[in-house]
Design brief:
mainly alpha; Tetracycline Repressor, domain 2; 229 residues; 10 helices
Length: 229
């Protein structure tokens, strides 16, 4: 049975994302994806004439799935993630009453971040850490991929920013600049993942709680407040 174009395209991207996540983005080629799907490479080329576009979309597919699994969006409005800006400025302090129109539930931000830090520090997060490291390296030479990496970086930052802002409104956190906190948390995660391909086992102990400890300080929380419950 012939598949609809949208279904076939999604199948191609999903397969490419799986390959990139488990083996590396260099392994995402039109022929490899075609072999995995049991189709001719020309069919994959029909949807993606340039392999770089497929690699970029595979990266975005994998990282978006990971983001939604790790950090469910507190604001599911499809228009809530603004288009990335070349040089985003820190967002202003929402003030004591929080941003207009928001409705935070006490405790949700704490539970979300506890779950996030527990999952992101586990071995289950290793593949996505390797993918980010892989994509940032390749983006030096592949401008299409670079655009996708930058977009995803900003998307992850804005997701954390909204969770922090909602927690501030609910009284869970104290934070003057949720955007800056989100950036610092993600930089810390990336830093602790930098050795994922080499000496991770020698560094795991000293840095095991570094990101969580940083977040607790950023959010005005007592030490251990973001430990899993």
């Amino acid at each position: 049975m012939r598949k609809a174009p949208a279904e076939r395209r999604n199948e191609i991207v999903t397969t490419a994302a799986r390959i990139g996540l488990t083996e590396g983005l260099e392994c995402v080629t039109l022929r490899r994806v075609a072999d995995e799907l049991g189709v001719q490479s020309g069919l994959v080329g029909h949807y993606f004439p340039a392999a770089d576009k497929l690699v970029a979309e595979a990266f975005t597919s994998a990282t978006m799935a990971e983001l939604d699994g790790l950090l469910p969006d507190p604001d599911p409005d499809p228009d809530s993630d603004p288009a990335p800006h070349p040089d985003p400025a820190p967002h202003p302090d929402p003030g004591p009453e929080g941003p207009a129109g928001s409705a935070a539930t006490p405790g949700v931000g704490l539970r979300t971040l506890r779950r996030f830090f527990a999952l992101s520090s586990s071995a289950d997060f290793d593949d996505i850490s390797k993918l980010w490291l892989n994509a940032r390296h390749l983006s030096r030479y592949r401008p299409v991929l670079r655009d996708h990496v930058v977009e995803q970086e900003l998307l992850w930052c804005r997701r954390i920013e909204r969770i922090v802002a909602a927690g501030v409104e609910a009284g869970d956190f104290r934070c003057d600049d949720p955007w800056a906190t989100a950036v610092r948390v993600l930089v810390a995660i990336d830093g602790t993942s930098a050795y994922i391909n080499t000496s991770a086992e020698h560094r795991a102990g000293p840095i095991a709680h570094m990101v969580r400890t940083l977040a607790e300080s950023e959010l005005g929380l007592a030490p251990g407040a973001l430990e899993p419950r």
